[in-house]
Amino acid sequence: MTIEPKKGLDRPKPNGGKGRPKGALNKNTAKAKDAIALAAEKLGGAERLVAWAKEDPLNERVFWGTIYPKLLPLQAEISGPEGSPFAIQIVRFGAKDDDGPASE
After folding, report:
1. The pTM is what?
2. If 53 and its partner were Cys, which of 61, 63, 87, 88 is the partner (CB 3.0–4.6 Å)?
């Protein structure tokens, strides 16, 4: 027993491929971002944000740890001098020898 596909299913849909362009925000997301930006301006904008961050070391920590990273790209291409591979060297301070961490 074979199942035959219904006629007309192979044809392209009249609006096929017409959707939101890649990276475009939906209307609700765009409205929410606009509302947040307006509220931030009314609360003092960048000058108020700087004052808030300086009020308390915890506020500055929140700024650098939570707010600022949202502006950074999700992935970064890092290389050393002249395009060479980037190297990380781990240095332990207080170790008695190179065999392991320092003991108390």
Report:
1. 0.46
2. 63
